[in-house]
Amino acid sequence: MNQTLLSSLRVTQTSSPLARFGWAIADAWIITRRDLMHWRLRPATVIMGWFFPVMIVLMFGLLFGGAIRVPNGGSYFEFLMPGMFTMTMLFGLEATMIAVTTDASKGVTDRFRSLPMSASAVVLGRCIADLLNSIVGLAIMVVVGLLLGWHWHAGMATALAAIGLLLLLRFALLWVGIFFGLRAKGPESVTSVQILVWPISFLSNAFVDPSTMPSWLGVIAQWNPFSATTSAIRQLFLNPGWQAGSWSAEHAVLLAIVWPVLLAAIFLPLSVRAYRRLNH
Amino acid sequence: MKILSTLLELDDGQACVAGFSVTTQPRQVRERIGLVGQYAAIDEILTGRQNLVLFGQLNHLSRRQAQLRADALLEQFALTNAGNMPASTFSGGMRRRLDLAASLIVSPEVLFVDEPTTGLDPAGRREVWAAIRSLVATGTTVLLTTQYLEEADQLAHRIAMLKEGRVIAEGTPDSLKARLRGDWLDIIVRPGVEIAAVVQLVQPVATGDIRIDTQMNQISIPVTDRTRAVVTVATTLSEAGIELEDFVLRRPTLDEVFLHLTAPAKSQDSLEVAS
Predict the structure, then answer these.
(1) Using the beta-carbon criterion (under 8 Å), do A34 and B5 form an inter-chain contact?
(2) How far is B241 from chain A (nearest CA, A)?
(3) DSSP-assigned beta bridge partners for residue B220
(4) Could you tell me where the DSSP H helices lie in A107-224?
(5) Contact B140/B107 with Cβ under 8 angstroms?
(6) Does ipTM surpass 0.85 in this model?
(7) In this structure, are residues B204 and B232 in contact, taking their beta carbons and an 8 Å threshold?
(8) Distance CA A210, CA B79 (A)
(9) Contact in structure between B99 and B120 (CB atoms under 8 Å)
(10) Among A62, A118, B141, B241, whose Cα sits 20 to 30 Å from the Cα of B223?
(11) Is the pTM of this model over 0.90?
(12) Which domains are assigned to chain B?
């Protein structure tokens, strides 16, 4: 072992609130960049995450598409893609949970917590990295959709508003993922979420009309946050959707804002609390 | 340890680290401590060097400073060659060294080390010990927990022994050993020699209860007057014509101190580890 003296490097910290805010942003970006480095060092994981929804689109579009009658006729992909965009956001939940759980179980989170860095930077950095990941995933899905014959029929601004609603949903789910990731006992418990993602996304209007379900199930499907976002972006993209008729379907855009805001309002503080009390 | 490193809130009472309260000044505490947990807290996907640069930047070093520091630490912990490999390919000892290096990016005033050599082979253990010793030599206070008392003996200036969460003894290794009042003379007799007869012969020099390990053919005699004890036992056994396999005068180990302190009250006087 080299016995060179440790340099007496010691950092003096400024503690004015403004300087602290500056550090929080800088720290968050370092945490984000760490995730981007993971993309480069383990490309397979992140690429799999991006192309998994593409595979689902192809499975549904090519296998079931022929058998499903689209409302008002038209291409099945025109109908399918908005639901798949929403599902892509939901799949991001797993990636968030896995990342959070892995760091917590390996002690990396404890190391972050023992550093003089801003506590919010850790969750904020995770938030930015996962949103970037979802933006890339969504961009891939849009390109795949366009190749398969899906189109938006509204102006660019409306289309971007639809994308905005999708990312708002992803933002809300992020905090759900961070919360359950911190509370999870280990990477095994993520598996249960991976399974639960399916019934949650199928119990919506993404694939079938809720009015054809048993009435109690139909009500759940109608009020499912994923149905709200799916309906809203169908309306904004001017893609075919199910006959409106229920209050929830007529106010889809409003619900597509209210639901994510509500989820974030619940899970953001819960996540921050879970992070602070990680060792309890 | 989790409380002192501000990871866990204090239920009751108060604690200060480097002059700052962990409850009311956690940020000042965090600026002055390093933490080495039981599991090597490193990013497995990143390389060793990337890990150190990451934690350096989170310690608010500039990118350039963090890189220089990472290189210096890799060299200090003999990881330069492995620095560009993903941490997931590291051996247990290398991970611990990287973990330790990450805790030392801004030479902390106080370093908390939680069972640093658990699960390491003897070579890895020695590497970690050397790293901790060199750190102490530079003036850092190290608080180390361990289950291996030999490790505490090797590294510590002051030891607190805990049982069920309470301190049962505290002091320098020497002062703890002195609690057993005296040293041990271990003799191992040839197989076939009547152990009871030997015990009879050496009984006069013993200052406490003699311990017998029949499997090892070992007799441990507590002694205080070292020279006289050695001469007396050697002469007595030689005159009786008893051949020995081994004959060792030694200080008590911390294991013996711990067992002595934690032994149930009734058997506290006769600490026999027979068979």
Answers:
(1) no
(2) 50
(3) B186, B211
(4) 108-114, 119-148, 156-183, 188-202, 215-223
(5) yes
(6) no
(7) yes
(8) 60
(9) no
(10) B241
(11) no
(12) 32-156 (3.40.50.300), 179-265 (3.30.70.100)
